[in-house]
Amino acid sequence: MINLLSNLKISVPEKIFLKDPESSKLGKRIIEHGILLIEEIGFDSFTFKKLGVKIGSNESSIYRYFESKHKLLLYLTSWYWAWIEYQLVFATHNISDEKLQLEKAIEIVTRSIKEDSTFLHINEVILNRIIINEYSKSYLTKEVDAENKEGYFVIYKRLVTRLRDMIVKINPKYTYASSLASTIIEGALHQHFLKDHFKSITDCDTTTTPTQFFTDLTFNTLR
Amino acid sequence: MINLLSNLKISVPEKIFLKDPESSKLGKRIIEHGILLIEEIGFDSFTFKKLGVKIGSNESSIYRYFESKHKLLLYLTSWYWAWIEYQLVFATHNISDEKLQLEKAIEIVTRSIKEDSTFLHINEVILNRIIINEYSKSYLTKEVDAENKEGYFVIYKRLVTRLRDMIVKINPKYTYASSLASTIIEGALHQHFLKDHFKSITDCDTTTTPTQFFTDLTFNTLR
DNA sequence: TTTAATTGATAGTAATACTGTTATATTTGC
DNA sequence: GCAAATATAACAGTATTACTATCAATTAAA
Predict the structure, then answer these.
(1) Mean per-residue pLDDT, B91-102
(2) Which pLDDT band, with edges at 50, 70 and 90, does B136 fall under?
(3) How does residue B207 score in pLDDT terms, banded at 50, 70 and 90?
(4) CATH number of the CATH domain containing A81
(5) Is residue B183 domain-resident?
(6) Bases in strand D with any atom closer than 7 Å to a protein CB
(7) What is the distance in angstroms measured between the alpha-carbon CA of A139 and the sugar C1' of C5?
(8) A157, B200: Cβ pair inside 8 Å?
(9) pLDDT of residue A115
(10) Looking at the 3D structure of chain A, how many domains does it have?
(11) Which stretches of B28-115 are assigned E, i.e. beta strand?
(12) pLDDT tens digits for range B5-41
């Protein structure tokens, strides 16, 4: 994965940012340390002022890249899902067996990230933890319909759709392909959260993974 | 349901509040209009000051009932899950057929609330919408482990456990009963959200319900 | 090297999330 | 029915948040 992606840029809907953080050194520092600080203190306590202190830069400079911390979260989540989508497409496109293909796809969308290797300034392991803990907050807002119209969630929706299409290929008669696909992706994040904080209501732990659970669930349902 | 519950009090872990809102007229007004205001402007914009204005009462008076708006949310969510748990226990305890019992249980935890009838000052229809839109925010915090230790999530966990036990009864060999139970409950909220805001990634709409999807999913998996 | 663009420093504002104090109601116990 | 206890309202005050605006200092591009 490392070399394959070295000159590839993950693209995020342009309206999310005021100025592309990939276009400058400061922008990249905002992303890099934004990820680290959100993971460290949580999104709710995170402020641009604190991030400014951390990167030795000014609060107002950060505002020139993102209107608000909410937009920064939208940027990070879009980036993350685009990255997952890339992996999904890349890892499944040359698998001819449709069952194996869906199996691989489920693995990619449900696994936890263990290696930080692909992009220089983005720690994917920590970003994955942010997605687990904060992703819901990006859409559970009163502005969700307006922001959806602006295209802020296209990447996520496209990912779900790709998974749905693979489900349909396996069993075209199955009535709930979209719901199953969205349940797998959202549900995996939830199971990862539960294994870290509410162990009593999940079977996932160090030996059993969300991937196993959702693979079993999917193929039992589609058979 | 109306008469049966008329002298029943839903009980919420005591540490959540400073003073029991059920113990006074002001307390009940806080709950009643808190629900309405959170639904109206969203939890993120909701403040005790605004609620004070709405109920013609003082901000500092509300603080004598709840430490913070986060605690109010914990109160409302605990109340909601306790109410669902009551319905689950009540509606399933005299069903001897285990399959029918689980079917009923899934219906209760996944359906959307259409009637506001049981408790005078609590609008369950609107509370259900709040749960769909805001429940995740009650646990996706840096304080979740500390608050879990304090018992703030016991009711929710007990509900998931009850559903898990019914799943186990149907198929004792199934390995993922806890994960399936937590996926049904959390996943249903998510599907309700999707049908309102991201229609393209769900099959649920006016004719197809989350209940149908999760019933089908569960029994296909356990068979 | 001049100009343009970017960043940093500083100031300022309205709102948030509280805490504290004191006065005024309201309830309760006798 | 009245005093004492309790609850609520009104007001003041604080640190922080989530920005916006202005202008000076750097840095990059033509």
Answers:
(1) 95
(2) very high
(3) very high
(4) 1.10.357.10
(5) yes
(6) 7-12, 16-22
(7) 34
(8) yes
(9) 77
(10) 1
(11) none
(12) 555 678 889 899 999 999 999 999 999 999 999 999 9
Contact A140 B136 (CB under 8 A): yes
Q: Confidence band (pLDDT; 50, 70, 90) for B1?
A: very low
In a domain, A22, yes or no: yes
**Domain assignment present for B117:** yes
State mean pLDDT over B145-152: 96
What is the distance in angstroms between the Cα of A187 and the nearest Cα belonging to chain B?
A: 6
Judge whether A9 lies within some domain: no
Kindly list the residues from chain A whose CB atom is less than 8 angstroms away from the CB atom of residue B158: none
Query: What rounded mean pLDDT belongs to chain B?
Result: 93
pLDDT tens column, A169-196 = 999 999 999 999 999 999 999 999 999 9
Which chain B residues contact residue A190 at CB under 8 A? 182-183, 186-187
- Region A111-134: mean pLDDT is 89
Alpha-carbon distance of A18 to A70, in angstroms, equals: 13
For residue A7, the model assigns a pLDDT of: 60
Q: Structural domain of residue A61, as residue ranges?
A: 14-222
Q: Could B145 and A197 be called an inter-chain contact, meaning their C-beta atoms sit closer than 8 Å?
A: yes
The CA–C1' separation of A64 and C4, in angstroms, is 17
Of A179, A198, A216, the CB nearest to B153: A198
Phi-psi category of residue A174: left, alpha or beta, with phi > 0 → left and psi -120 to 50 → alpha:
beta
Residue B62 has pLDDT above 80, yes or no: yes
Cβ-defined contact of B177 to A136 (cutoff 8 Å): no
CA of A158 to C1' of D23 (A): 45
